[in-house]
Specification:
heterodimer; A: 345 residues; alpha/beta; two-stranded parallel ribbon; B: 476 residues; mainly alpha
């Protein structure tokens, strides 16, 4: 069969079909599409390649399962998840500690939500640490809505959660259908699964795996450095609307329940501060947070200068500590607590 | 309101249900479609509605007067009014921006500082398409090829019919007006073809065009960073992006029309299988190329006055065809380039009579000649797209002189998505080419069609670009 067949351009030939055929050719693909959705929904429950969804779901599950109060409550984003050693806190400060750190795209809003739920159930703990990296304060709620659809929140949580995220009809439809229509609402997770299974890339030779992994880690880290420098060079800092509401809600809760709330700035790669534009952006973030904490004596910022770490204490990004970095950060946090005279045991 | 948006899905579903409810009541259906079309167009910017209503009114009344009059001079004068008023409005919106900078510089000389924003005029979406459509109407009435319609609702619907309003196909009154005027029947065969065209069009736009656009944009926007095979991959990506974007739109438009019982003209017939420049223009944007042929090339004299006049007419037609896309030098050069290769082909063809030769050669010889011709024409088309997509002459020079086969560390990253997204398209098109049937997939057995449509849905939802990217031809 030759590729070049005829010299004449093709035409449209409308073939004869029956009504039944047309109806079936419409309905059956939709049913098949729905069945594939159901299959992927089950598969993604256990194997979602989007670790953000997995972490957020696991943390909310853990949070919902919490049976009794803790002394040290730690909330925040992935920098918090990577940077806190609970055993060290319990050992040095006494009492019990728990962390429910999720991901940056859930904003400070998630911290406010969790704190609100916790306080309603257990009252104030001895210490609350809300740990966030500097660059999430400017983000808007676009990705948060995706997480709201993917995370299994407690019943009727969306109605009572403050800050309230206004949902359009489309958003509400998404929330209601996301658990069984992942092809529609979580396409990137499905895409990743498909791409991984039909990858064009050849397997890396086994004896080179460690070297390649090391090279990849270096590349990832360097890319993240470039990302942060570019971000701060191209943008003026402005706090996101929902983050602004979240910080006010945190302040309200601290007053209402009479406890000290610590906004902790996540550790950062030290070399970032050598860049003037980064330094300027970072200072804008701290100035904005200062305004809120100055209004409320129960709100404190810990590490306003950020704990600046060299490369060897960091993982693949500028704000994720490795095991050694996590111990260093947790120890520094403990010293801050002791310095602040929080009621350590 | 893009065809691929949720808003459009809701809009069309509502309109279609209402349309079906008033089946067999053609006047009510037309009124409904006209209202829907104006709503659809006003969704972009309601100010545009005055423009399209103005176009409609001018063409309707001029057409009526031309039809009524037996006075040759009066008819000519009326035609001139219609043609010039349409072209002046089109020229104002389309080419005003081109002169703004010069105008500002001129004002500056006289010490007048004008805010550039005050001179910005937003190009009404689809204006090039419906201008040409209304022009064809008045010209056809003048030529006596069609009679004026007395029903302004029908005529207004002909101008604004929403499936093809903003990016064609540029319909002819003699094809569309009779369909509007007579009752439409829901035809199951037509609906079957319509469903396929919509799915295939959305697939081409969201899965192929918008994904390969990422490769094309990266290389065209940062061309100085790339050499060798990367540049070829960038050009290849744009070649498929523009085809899938534009033909995808046409497919959706034609599919929607079919669902409502209308037949719009086929706008693309596998253009990248063209054997030569002349063949290409019988396959690419057919509604525009045939418009230019009928209303420009032939009135200029076509090939009736010897070869040199024919070649001159060809070049004028292609230059204006390029200019139709906008007042940018690259469109003019692109038109000139296609005019040039058409002329070279004509000269070469008349000297060598290649058609006869290829027809006489049988079996493998014919296959080789046709394959070679297709490959050469494809490369020539790609060169044309470099001109079309580039921002400067320097960029064209760079990209054409630095293209090659040398791999870089990026090449695989560009090649992978291209293969993934383009290979299925090529497979389908080879099948369409071999069977000479653009709807060949609708002839497959029911189980195969069900699998195919499921795959389309899966690919559209999972691999379709989610950022709403406007169709390229909306800007023209």
């Amino acid at each position: 069969m030759s590729i070049a067949g005829s010299t004449r351009p093709p035409t449209e030939v409308i073939g004869a079909v029956t009504k039944r055929e047309v109806v079936l050719s419409l309905i059956l693909p939709l049913l098949a599409f729905f069945a594939i959705n159901v299959w992927f929904a089950r598969y993604l429950n256990e194997n979602d390649p989007n670790l953000g969804y997995v972490i957020a779901n696991q943390q909310w599950q853990k949070f919902s399962d919490l049976q009794e109060s803790v002394d040290w409550l730690i909330l925040g984003d992935s920098s918090c998840g990577a940077g806190i050693v609970l055993e060290l806190i319990e050992q040095e400060l006494g009492g019990t500690a728990a962390e429910f750190c999720v991901v940056g795209d859930m904003l400070v809003v998630n911290s406010a939500w969790m704190l609100q739920e916790y306080l309603q159930n257990f009252g104030p703990p001895k210490g609350v640490f809300i740990i966030h990296v500097y660059d999430i304060w400017s983000r808007d709620e676009t990705n948060l809505k995706a997480y709201m659809a993917a995370v299994d929140f407690p019943d009727s949580f969306e109605q009572r959660a403050i800050p309230h995220i206004p949902l359009t009809l489309g958003d509400q439809f998404r929330l209601k259908t996301s658990s069984f229509l992942p092809l529609v609402w979580r396409p990137f997770s499905v895409r990743q699964i498909v791409e991984n299974s039909v990858s064009f890339q050849r397997d890396i030779a086994t004896d080179n795996k460690e070297l390649v992994a090391e090279t990849q880690a270096v590349n990832l880290f360097n890319e993240d450095v470039v990302f942060h420098i570019t971000l701060t060079r191209r943008n003026e800092f402005q706090i996101g609307q929902k983050n602004q509401e979240a910080i006010h809600q945190l302040s309200t809760l601290a007053n209402q329940y009479q406890f000290d709330l610590n906004l902790v700035i996540a550790p950062l790669y030290e070399s970032l501060f050598e860049h003037g534009t980064f330094q300027r952006y970072y200072e804008q973030v701290i100035r904005t947070l200062d305004v809120v904490t100055e209004e409320n004596p129960r709100m404190h910022i810990l590490f306003p200068e950020a704990l600046r770490l060299p490369r060897e204490y960091l993982d693949n990004s500028v704000d994720h500590t490795n095991a050694a970095g996590a111990r260093l950060f947790t120890q520094a946090l403990i010293e801050e607590v002791l310095h602040l005279n929080l009621p350590a045991q | 309101m893009l065809f691929t948006s949720v808003e459009f899905l809701l809009f069309f579903t509502t309109v279609y249900i209402m349309y079906a409810l008033v089946n067999n009541k053609v006047r009510i259906q037309n009124l409904l479609l006209l209202t829907a079309s104006y709503f659809f167009y006003g969704w972009w910017d309601w100010h545009y509605l005055f423009l399209i209503a103005g176009y409609t009114a001018i063409s309707f009344f001029v057409g009526r007067e031309i039809d009524r009059s037996n006075d040759g001079k009066k008819r000519k004068k009326l035609l001139a009014i219609s043609v010039f008023s349409s072209l002046i409005i089109l020229g104002f919106f389309k080419y005003f921006g081109f002169f703004v900078d010069s105008l500002l510089a001129l004002f500056d000389i006289f010490g007048l500082n004008i805010d550039p924003l005050a001179l910005q005029i937003l190009l009404p979406v689809g204006i090039s398409f419906y201008t040409f459509q209304t022009l064809s109407y008045t010209i056809d009435v003048y030529r006596g090829e069609i009679r004026h319609t007395n029903n302004i609702i029908d005529f207004a619907l002909f101008v604004s019919f929403f499936p093809q309003l903003v990016a064609g196909p540029i319909e002819r009154a003699k094809n569309l007006l009779p369909q509007i005027a007579t009752p439409r029947q829901f035809n199951i065969n037509q609906i079957n073809a319509g469903i396929f065209l919509i799915l295939w069009g959305v697939y081409k736009k969201l899965v192929i065009a918008d994904n390969v656009a990422k490769v094309a944009n990266e290389i065209f926007n940062n061309y100085a960073l790339y050499t060798g095979l990367d540049i070829i991959l960038g050009i290849l990506a744009f070649t498929f992006q523009i085809y899938c974007d534009f033909s995808g739109y046409s497919d959706i438009a034609r599919g929607l029309a079919k669902l409502m019982g209308f037949e719009l003209m086929v706008n693309f017939k596998l253009p990248y299988f063209a054997l030569n420049p002349s063949d290409f223009w019988q396959r690419w944007h057919i509604s525009l190329s045939s418009w230019l042929r009928d209303y420009l090339y032939i009135p200029l004299g076509g090939n009736r006055h010897g070869q040199s006049t024919a070649l001159r007419n060809l070049m004028i037609t292609m230059l204006l065809g390029g200019l139709w896309h906008g007042a940018a030098w690259n469109f003019v050069i692109w038109g000139a380039y296609h005019g040039f290769i058409l002329i070279i082909y004509r000269l070469w063809d008349s000297a060598h009579a290649v058609h006869q030769e290829s027809r006489q050669t049988g079996g493998h010889g014919r296959f080789l000649i046709q394959t070679m011709s297709t490959v050469i024409m494809f490369i020539l088309t790609m060169i044309g797209w470099v001109i079309f997509r580039s921002d400067s002459v320097a960029q064209i020079n760079y990209m054409l002189s630095h293209a090659g086969i040398i791999l870089s560390e990026n090449s695989f990253a560009f090649l992978r998505p291209l293969l993934f997204y383009i290979a299925p398209l090529v497979a389908v098109q080879i099948l369409q080419h071999k069977t000479r049937d653009l709807l060949v997939l609708t002839t497959f057995s029911l189980p195969v069609r069900i699998i195919l449509y499921t795959v389309f849905l899966f690919m559209i939802f999972v691999f379709g670009a989610r950022e709403q990217v406007e169709f390229i031809y909306f800007q023209f």
